[in-house]
Amino acid sequence: MTTLPHPDADQISFPEVLATLGDETRLAIIAYLARNEGQAMTCGQFYGLGSKTSLSYHLAKLREAGIVRVQPEGTRRLVTLRREDLDARFPGFLDSIIASACDVPFVVQNDEVVFGSAS
């Protein structure tokens, strides 16, 4: 099984996390993962936020910063929020980010996250 590199919890850098979260697409991904915490999401559920190439880039940035875990499973990649690691490293920070991400306009249509607002 292929594994992807993730930083250890003690290697997660606050400046890198801040820089990584300064993007609306990444905030939408984090907000959606937080709403569905405890449940792994597939990369395909985020394709409404951009092209496959764009989403691969954004998920890699989130993974490299230590914000999400991406686990290959067959032909899919499962994405989960690294809440436990982030809360241990930066107490209360993730909750603040999730609360602010509520302003990012996205909706779920056909089990896929897309930019926009509910009509």
Number of domains: 1
Radius of gyration: 14 Å
Order of helical and strand elements: HHEHEEHHEE
Q: Which range does the strand content fall in?
A: 15-25%
Pick out the low-confidence regions: none
CATH fold assignment:
Arc Repressor Mutant, subunit A
InterPro entries: ArsR-like_HTH, HTH_ArsR_DNA-bd_dom, HTH_MetalResp_TranReg, WH-like_DNA-bd_sf, WH_DNA-bd_sf
GO molecular function: DNA binding; DNA-binding transcription factor activity
Organism: Paradevosia shaoguanensis
Keywords: DNA-binding, Transcription, Transcription regulation
Summarize the structure.
It is built from five helices and five strands, in the order ααβαββααββ. The protein has 119 residues and is of the alpha+beta class.
List keywords for this structure.
single chain, 119 residues, Arc Repressor Mutant, subunit A, three-stranded antiparallel sheet, two-stranded antiparallel ribbon, transcription
Folded structure, characterized:
This protein is α+β, with helices and mostly antiparallel strands. The chain has a single domain, classed as Arc Repressor Mutant, subunit A, CATH 1.10.10.10. 39% of the residues lie in helices and 18% in strands. A three-stranded antiparallel sheet has the order 1-3-2. The chain is globular and about 35 Å long. The chain starts with 13 loop residues before the first helix and ends with a strand. The mean pLDDT is 84.
Blueprint of the fold:
Elements: H1 14-20, H2 24-35, E1 41-42, H3 52-64, E2 68-73, E3 76-81, H4 83-89, H5 93-100, E4 106-109, E5 112-115
Antiparallel strand pairs: 1-3, 2-3, 4-5
